[in-house]
Design goal:
single chain; elongated; three-stranded parallel β-sheet; mainly alpha; three-stranded antiparallel β-sheet; binds zinc ion; 13 strands
């Protein structure tokens, strides 16, 4: 590893010098925003922070494509949405009834996730930009240069466009759809077009008031010009030969006379065993669901530690535990660029997630949780943060944990212990004596005791572990024994083990 330069620093070092930089990210809030989409914004933020770290003047922008039309009735929508297809998602009612619009329904949890992830972009809504007239000049340019743009698109992408093609879709005054209407005339001085919609309506659209939108392949370079975007991450689908970035580059240079942004192409995040995430297909973990279980700095780390061009295969089960363990290790060393770029200043060091997973299965309420934790050496003063961690562990157990990590401490001595041969119970009894005289009730000593006691009794250590678990859980496997017994507390552990060995030994 050593001197390997972090990918975000590589990008920061390769951008043009002597200009004010604007890093753009954009997501269409047409469905639940999942962690695959999150890669876009996190990639942008990491590059932005790397630039800031080098003293390069930069801003981070997020443009929500909430003026895009609803493409179809997605599987997560009721059939009644069929009537809204083709209309801008900023104008469609929210599916739950609690948000301003369909777009806002998906955007608003996403924006709170951003702040939790310590990402603070300047947020722009496409619907507002179009409706406020901010883009009027750029739209006029696009419509006036329709022929040239069409030539670029055909030439670079290799596809043929119909003769009546125009870069602008008006919102039809009758059917309300953003549609590829026939543009009959353009009056640049009044910012209007005459159009004939597929529904038969002929009307006038004023693009200074948002009565229409540029097609995606033109909209994208138009906003580079409008905002002066210099760096932009985007998914690999926009990066293939002849794709929207290629055509956008030409449109930017030849129509808008600006340099296209430095591209940062990223790969998909797939869900282990399920393939790439697509909210429209229902294969996705939303960003909100993700933050219910993953601490935000760990989520940053997931993106920071992987170069953008590499796929991330995300495993929300045991894979998540390994990821958190890895991050905890990196954060203890408190070195390395990945950690610097991932850490969130307001988050203190925390109790290991594995340990929390054990503790919440022992303690079912807040009071017992703190009793358990106070037996350990962890700092438990930040109660709010600890309760949040505990909740993450509970959600993880409920939704993603494999059965092998789940357990419940029995209220009474499990009956199975009565079937254990007397010889083995003597081993358990010896371990009980060991614990009784243990000077300090610490996880490590408790754990090591098994290895000390078992050979003295002619037993396999593995078997002794099994018996201890059996006495508490009624099963031969359980969480790391030292932590587990430490959290259960001395009194309870000695009591239960005494019960277990009583009939044979006393
Ligand atoms: Zn809603
Ligand atoms: Zn129409």
């Amino acid at each position: 590893m050593g001197e390997r330069i972090h990918w975000a620093d590589v990008v920061a070092a390769s951008v043009r010098e002597g200009v004010e930089h604007r890093v753009a990210t954009g997501i269409t809030p047409s469905g639940p925003i999942h962690i695959g989409n999150m890669r876009e914004v996190l990639t942008g933020d990491l590059v932005f922070k790397a630039m800031a770290g080098r003293g390069i003047p930069a801003e981070l922008h997020y443009i929500a494509d909430d003026f895009d039309p609803l493409r179809k009735v997605y599987p997560f929508l009721p059939e009644s949405y069929a009537g809204w297809v083709g209309k801008p998602i900023s104008d469609i009612p929210c599916p739950c009834g609690e948000h301003r619009s369909y777009a806002d329904h998906f955007l608003s949890p996403f924006l709170s996730a951003l702040s939790e992830l310590d990402i603070s972009p300047r947020v722009h809504l496409s619907s507002e930009l179009y409706r406020s007239g901010a883009y009027t000049g750029e739209i006029a340019t696009a419509i006036s240069h329709g022929g040239e743009i069409r030539h670029i698109l055909e030439h670079v992408s290799g596809r043929t466009l119909p003769p009546e093609w125009a870069p602008f879709y008006p919102v039809c005054s009758v059917c309300g759809r953003l549609s590829p209407a026939l543009i009959l005339a353009h009056d640049a001085s009044r910012h209007t077009v005459r159009y004939r919609c597929a529904c038969g309506n002929e009307g006038t659209a004023d693009y200074s008031r948002g009565e229409g939108k540029l097609v995606w392949r033109v909209d994208w370079p138009m906003r580079w010009a409008h905002f002066g975007i210099t760096v932009e991450p985007f998914g690999k689908d926009h990066a293939t030969a002849g794709s929207s970035y290629d055509t956008g580059k030409e449109i930017a240079r030849r129509i808008y006379r600006c340099e296209p942004p430095h591209p940062v192409v990223y790969e998909w995040i797939s869900l282990k065993g399920k393939g790439a995430m697509h909210s429209s297909k229902g294969v996705a973990v939303t960003i909100t669901e993700m933050l219910e279980i993953v601490p935000p700095d760990v989520l940053r780390y997931l993106i920071a530690r992987t170069r953008p061009e590499r796929t991330i295969d995300f495993d929300p089960g045991m894979g998540l535990i390994s990821l958190i363990d890895e991050y905890d290790r990196v954060s203890r060393e408190a070195a390395g660029r990945e950690y610097e770029l991932s850490r969130i200043a307001s988050i203190p060091t925390r109790i290991p997630f594995r340990h929390m997973v054990t503790v919440v299965q022992i303690a079912h309420d807040g009071k017992r949780l703190f009793q358990c934790l106070s037996r350990t050496s962890y700092d438990v003063t930040d109660t709010e943060n600890i309760l949040r961690q505990a909740e993450r562990a509970r959600v993880w157990l409920r939704k993603y944990a494999p059965d092998s990590v789940k357990f419940s401490v029995r209220d009474g001595l499990p009956l199975q212990i009565r079937d254990v041969p007397e010889g083995e119970i003597r081993g358990l009894s010896a371990y009980l004596e060991f614990l009784r005289v243990l000077p300090a009730w610490s996880a490590e000593a408790i754990h090591n005791g098994v290895y000390e006691v078992a050979p003295r009794c002619g037993m396999d250590a593995k078997r002794l572990f099994e018996l201890v678990y059996l006495a508490f859980l009624g099963q031969v496997r359980g969480p790391r024994l030292g932590w587990f017994l430490e959290a259960l507390g001395r009194e309870f552990v000695l009591g239960r083990l005494s019960e277990a060995v009583y009939p044979c030994v006393l």
